[in-house]
Amino acid sequence: MKKYLFLILFSCALLGHSQQIALLKYKGGGDWYANPTALPNLITYCNNNINTTIETKPETVEVGSMDIFQYPFIHMTGHGNVFFSEEDSENLRNYLYSGGFLHIDDNYGMQPYITKELKKVFPDKDLVEIPANHPIFSTAFAFPEGLPKIHEHDGKRPQAFGIFHEGRLILLFTLECDLGDGWEDEIVHNDPSNVREKALKMGANIIKYAFDN
């Protein structure tokens, strides 16, 4: 019964907020607010290139709040520690199982913390690497080799990991890529225009996948 209640709540919320996205605020001391210009720039790019009509100013929503059910797409980033309480974990799990989508972008240094906390959310699921032929790499723009490399960090290859539920990708974790830095204003990191374009195109793919699936 509780599961169906969340489904009804999520469906009703989406009727009024289907073109609005949010940034996830979490506990633990990690800088959840990193890359302040990233989401606004991604929204502008999507509205101009893939026919979305997303509100230009993204909302901020706490992981344990029922407000997360208002948004079909939530973005999470940071460099450091992440902590989910039992209530946070249950709320996030219900949101994702009810049709929501979470993109976690490691801004460098987040991996050991978020992977540990995700086991609270999904004790019976593991992050699995997403192959390059998954639809998320071609929903709007083609990335035949999978996730693009935006920033070097440790020089490792970029990887996209996911959690699936009933065949649907509900959570995307991007590592050694740093899409969010590529979405930021050009002056922040001085990335070449072609690198920023790759980041924005991949971001548009993620948004479109979240909205369509």
Concise synopsis of the structure shown:
The chain is an alpha/beta fold. It has helices spanning 2-17, 38-49, 86-97, 111-121, 179-183, 186-189, 193-212; strands at 21-25, 59-62, 73-78, 101-106, 128-129, 159-165, 168-175.
Strand order of the largest sheet: 2-1-3-4-7-6-5
Strand percent estimate: 15-25%
**Low-pLDDT windows of residues:** 1-17
Radius of gyration computed on alpha carbons: 16 Å
Structural class: alpha/beta
CATH class: Alpha Beta
User: CATH superfamily membership, which one?
Assistant: Domain of unknown function DUF4159
Global mean pLDDT: 90
Oligomeric state as shown: single chain
Could you give the topology of this structure?
Elements: H1 2-17, E1 21-25, H2 38-49, E2 59-62, E3 73-78, H3 86-97, E4 101-106, H4 111-121, E5 128-129, E6 159-165, E7 168-175, H5 179-183, H6 186-189, H7 193-212
Parallel strand pairs: 1-2, 1-3, 3-4, 4-7
Antiparallel strand pairs: 5-6, 6-7
How would you characterize this protein structure?
The chain is α/β, with parallel strands linked by helices. The protein has a single domain, classed as Domain of unknown function DUF4159 (Rossmann fold, 3-Layer(aba) Sandwich). It is 38% helix and 18% strand. The chain contains seven helices and seven strands, in the order αβαββαβαβββααα. The N terminus is likely disordered.
